[in-house]
Design a protein that fits this description.
The complex is a heterotrimer.
Chain A: H1 6-31, H2 52-60, H3 63-95, H4 99-108, H5 114-128, H6 134-158, H7 162-170, H8 175-204, H9 207-212, H10 220-223, H11 235-255, H12 260-264
Chain B: E1 4-13, E2 16-26, E3 31-35, H1 42-50, E4 57-62, E5 65-66, E6 77-80, H2 92-102, H3 107-121, H4 136-148, E7 154-158, H5 166-183, E8 186-191, H6 194-200, E9 203-208, E10 211-216, H7 218-223, H8 228-233, E11 240-247, E12 250-253, E13 258-260, E14 272-277, E15 282-284, E16 293-299, E17 302-305, E18 309-316, E19 319-326, E20 336-342, E21 347-349, E22 356-357
Parallel strand pairs in B: 3-8, 3-9, 6-7, 7-8
Antiparallel strand pairs in B: 1-2, 1-4, 4-5, 9-10, 11-12, 11-14, 12-13, 14-21, 15-20, 16-20, 17-18, 18-19, 21-22
Helix pairs in contact in B: 2-3, 2-4, 3-4
Chain C: H1 15-25, H2 27-55, H3 71-78, H4 80-111, H5 118-126, H6 133-144, H7 151-159, H8 173-199, H9 203-211, H10 216-243, H11 248-253, H12 265-275, H13 279-309
Helix pairs in contact in C: 2-13, 3-13, 4-8, 4-10, 4-12, 6-8, 8-10, 10-13, 12-13
Classes of the chains: A mainly alpha, B alpha+beta, C mainly alpha.
């Protein structure tokens, strides 16, 4: 263990402050009584914390509905994305299916500007009656998270030695059985990590949700629209909702810290 | 009765021809070792027999049936892999019984066979352990157990001992030999180690660049190699190759040394020749040179003792030759010694074709 | 003894066996079918559909879908806001990525060696990556918005005289706010990747340099940087491609305003398409935007695949 020079400690300390201050302020705001908002000097530790903003955010501003919708949509999309992504990744890893071209196509989906895709999807959904439906959002989010799922699992499957599955084949397994009994059980940690990444991506997504949802299936991030533009009254509610939203994704994110680099770079870099 | 017949087998992979027309007949109960340098195609050949690689050309027949398009699981072969390929999420018992469970054999039968197999290999105490808790040698035994429990008709080994340390390798080699004697099945074994090949094989198949360079019993290949490559590949330490010229009944080496032509060698058609001498056939000279032997005075450059023997290096005919002598006969570099070369066992090689000349 | 299945007896297999045989042979294709179908349905088909939209008049304010040729493209190209938003997008993205890179690199260099509490520090540093950009925008709005945010007060304390800046309304402070929010969220991205790169450099290279008496700066220039090179390119390109899509924080923090001062390309297209409902025009604009990024995307994806093969 090295002792860091003082300059570096200072630098890290300042950066940590940089990270934590906005979060702290937001947390404080969520439990501050409204009267304290415009106090000068600004209050950093409220004397009479209150939860009234939380209930307002969840109920008056329909934050709870947004939360439930986000949960339904994110969980479903995550499950589908993890499932289909794992299957495709295995196919890529073991059989190099479709060679470079298929892989390229799937990977490049990650970089499509959402605006180019959401415009026609919006029109198509309206025609098909899929606008503002769970189904519509779920399949959209599944496609949205597929590239990362595929790529994380691909890197993961490549780490499992081929010889194990070859032994299973020689011993009497079909390809499907070898996948189910050998590769899949060994891939579970990777699948969990990929699923968590997909969930966080769905949970925090805004643009698609803004365009493709409305009264019924609006997601949690879109609720923040309600706090736009006004001064004063909504600060507490906005903060409360923000805290409610970010706590689960931070917890999940910390769990998959180990896989972070792989998830961010689509498996190109090992963490 | 399990025979394997390979006819004109070809394998092309990404533009590289890994196998370029291999013909091989393996008899029932034979222990055949495929040996050769890296990239010679031995592993590829084995994997094609197992069904893990596609066949580009030619046929493989097991027991008379052509198996080219048959899935591995239908071929009834068992395979032991270099990295053991044990399933890490299963216990030893589950690993060994895996194939039987896949075939839906009743549990009682499985238990019986697992018991018999593990006893044969001495690993019955490890049944509940996981592969990560086992030593290299134990894992190897489990891998072998997994193969033999199936009572398959053909056993394939893909460099199974490469990952073991030297001491363990010696022990396991003996075990595999004993296994073959007990089970009597047809076995095909791949290795790059010529010692394993020599000790285990009924027949050695030496591969090079995708074709069979020579095949035959170990002794046959050792004493009557067909080419410089075979002569140099088998035998440790490696055979010495010294260029020379034949004049009359003598071979003149660079530096003036003259060696007599081996007595069995009649025809003197060749002029330029490479003399192949195994280090074991060069010893410290006694009183008189026997028939076919010659005494040569040399100055020893390097002495490398190996226990009861010593590898000594000395200049001969322009190259650094090596002889295996008794450790007490030569002790110091710089010593001047007279060496006895047994030309009866020498091999003459045509420098152009690199083939051994036998007449 | 176990039977040996023989392909020549295919005719006698039951239907179930034949099906399982077929699916085994085509296993690898069957595995990719669900994903491919989804991507075709939700990416390829919409894009093809949008090509049609490009050349007709799809506008909620004007009835019918008359064919209009290249008019939609024209409208976008002459629109000064479109050009302004493109310029702003580039300026903001480049600035954001540059700052994130330098800050991330500095952070990574400091964190390479292990020290007590390093794990905890790491966990805190990466937190912003898991927060919705909308919430990041919200958090910084709370800090910066007058009169509620403490920023002006704190700056006043630091500088000694009163600070009354409209961080979300006055230019150029406006842009600082957007930049700082983006930097806050995405610096960890660079940090994590660069740290992974730094820790993968074999330590004996540094040891050899130390024994040879090579100075710190030289070590950085001649060992660290070359090794990091490919990683740096990867990280910057990745991040840049995401940075140009900047929308969420703009939406929450400034709403594009005042006026169109903080219109990024995505926000501009959003406005045209979903507040004015000139959908064809928006589509034309988004295709132009797409075309501009395709070259970079193709290069990056190709690079990613190469890295994978090795």
């Amino acid at each position: 263990m090295a002792r860091l020079p003082i300059g570096r400690i200072l630098f890290i300390g300042l950066y940590l402050l940089f990270v934590l201050v906005p979060l702290y302020w937001m947390f404080i705001t969520s439990i501050k009584p409204s009267d304290d908002y415009l106090a000068v000097p600004p209050i950093w530790v409220p004397k009479q914390p209150t939860l009234v903003h939380y209930s307002a955010a969840l109920f008056a501003y329909r934050g709870l509905q947004g939360l439930i919708n986000s949960l339904i949509i994110s969980l479903s999309a995550t499950a589908l994305s993890a499932l289909f992504g794992t299957l495709m990744a295995y196919s890529f890893a073991r059989f190099n299916t479709g060679g470079k071209h298929l892989a390229f196509w799937v990977l490049s989906q990650r970089f499509l500007p959402p605006v180019a895709v959401v415009l026609p999807i919006f029109l198509i959904y309206r025609i098909l009656g899929l606008h503002d439906t769970y189904f519509g959002m779920i399949i959209a989010y599944t496609v949205f998270t597929l590239p990362v799922s595929v790529w994380m699992m691909f890197a993961y499957f490549r780490g499992i030695p081929k010889s194990m599955e070859e032994a299973a084949l020689v011993d009497g397994c079909s390809r499907w059985m070898s996948f189910r009994k050998i590769a899949l059980p060994l891939a579970i940690p990777g699948i969990v990590a990929a699923a968590i990444f997909a969930f966080i991506a769905c949970w925090t997504e805004f643009f698609f949700a803004l365009i493709l949802t409305s009264r019924y299936t609006f997601t949690l991030p879109t609720v923040f629209r309600a706090f736009l533009g006004f001064q004063g009254a909504q600060y507490g509610e906005a903060s409360a909702l923000a805290i409610v939203s970010l706590v689960p994704s931070i917890i999940l994110g910390t769990l998959v810290q180990k896989h972070l680099v792989r998830g961010l770079t689509l498996g190109a870099v090992r963490g | 009765m399990t025979t394997v017949k390979i006819t004109r087998l070809e394998k092309e992979y990404r533009g590289v021809r890994a196998l370029r027309g291999v013909d091989l007949d393996i008899a029932d109960g034979e222990f055949v070792v495929l040996v050769g340098p890296s990239g010679c195609g031995k592993s590829t050949l084995l994997r094609m027999i197992a069904g893990l690689e596609d066949i580009t050309g030619g046929t493989i027949a097991i027991d008379g049936d052509i198996v080219n398009d048959m899935q591995p699981r239908d071929r009834n072969v068992a395979m032991v892999f270099q990295d053991y390929a044990l399933y890490p999420h299963m216990t030893v018992e589950e690993n060994i019984g895996f194939a039987l469970r896949a075939k839906k054999i009743p549990e009682k039968e499985i238990a019986k066979r697992v018991d018999a197999t593990t006893r044969m290999l001495g690993i019955e105490a490890l049944l509940k352990r996981y592969p990560r808790q086992l030593s290299g040698g134990q894992r190897q035994r489990v891998a072998i157990g997994r193969a033999i429990i199936r009572e398959a008709r053909l056993f394939l080994f893909d460099e199974p001992l490469s990952n073991l340390d030297a001491q363990l390798r010696d022990d396991m080699r003996a075990e595999i030999k004993r296994l073959h004697q007990e089970l009597g099945r047809t076995m095909i074994y791949v290795t790059h180690d010529q010692i394993e090949a020599m000790t285990l094989a009924d027949r050695i198949v030496l591969l090079r660049d995708g074709i069979i360079e020579q095949q035959g019993s170990p002794l046959n290949l050792y004493e009557r190699p067909a080419s410089k490559f075979v002569a140099g590949f088998l035998g440790s330490p490696k055979m010495n190759f010294i260029p020379g010229t034949i004049t009359g009944r003598e071979i003149k080496l660079g530096g003036g040394t003259k060696l007599p032509l081996p007595p069995h060698f009649k025809n003197a058609k060749h002029k330029d020749v490479i003399v192949g001498l195994r280090p074991q056939h060069i010893t410290v000279a006694g009183k008189k040179a026997a028939g076919g032997h010659v005494h040569v005075p040399v100055t020893i450059e390097l002495v490398q003792p190996t226990g009861s023997r010593s590898h000594v290096t000395f200049p001969l005919g322009g190259i650094a030759a090596l002889a295996e002598v008794n450790v007490h006969d030569v002790t110091q570099p710089g010593e001047k010694v007279t060496l006895d070369i047994n030309m009866n066992r020498a091999v003459l090689i045509d420098p152009q074709t690199e083939k051994v000349i036998w007449n | 003894m176990a039977q040996v299945g023989n392909m020549k007896q295919a005719g006698s297999l039951s239907r179930l066996e034949a099906l399982s045989e077929w699916s085994d042979r085509h296993f690898k294709w069957l595995l990719v079918v669900p994903a491919v179908v989804l991507i075709l349905a939700l990416s390829v088909y919409p894009l093809l559909f949008s090509i049609w939209v490009l050349f007709v008049n799809y506008d909620f304010q004007i009835p019918g879908h008359a064919f209009v040729g290249l008019k939609n493209f024209q409208q976008v190209l002459v629109d000064p806001v479109a050009r302004w938003s493109l310029w702003l997008t580039i300026a903001l993205s480049v600035t954001n990525v540059a700052i994130e890179f330098l800050l991330g690199l500095a952070l990574a260099l400091t964190m390479v060696k292990t020290f007590r509490g390093r794990g905890l520090v790491m966990s805190i540093i990466i937190v912003p990556l898991f927060i919705s950009p909308v919430i990041v925008g919200q958090a910084w709005t709370l800090l910066l918005q007058r009169p509620f945010g403490p920023t002006n007060y704190l700056l006043g304390l630091l500088t000694g005289h009163e600070v009354a800046i409209g961080w979300l309304t006055e230019s150029p402070w406006l842009y600082f706010s957007l930049i700082i929010a983006d930097v806050w969220q995405w610096t960890p991205f660079m940090f994590v990747i660069l740290l992974a790169g730094l820790t993968s450099i074999p330590p004996n290279l540094y040891e050899a340099a130390e024994i040879d008496g090579v100075g710190d700066w030289q070590v950085f220039r001649r060992i660290t940087l070359p090794f990091l090179g490919p990683m740096i390119t990867l990280a910057i390109t990745f991040r840049l491609l995401d940075a140009i899509k900047l929308f969420d924080t703009i939406f929450i923090m400034t709403g594009g305003g005042p006026g169109t001062k903080t219109y990024t390309s995505s926000f501009y297209l959003y406005t045209v398409g979903f507040t004015q409902f000139h959908l064809s025009q928006a589509t034309a604009g988004s295709w132009i935007f797409l075309a501009l990024t395709i070259v970079v995307v193709t290069a990056l994806v190709r690079k990613l695949l190469e890295v994978d093969q090795s």
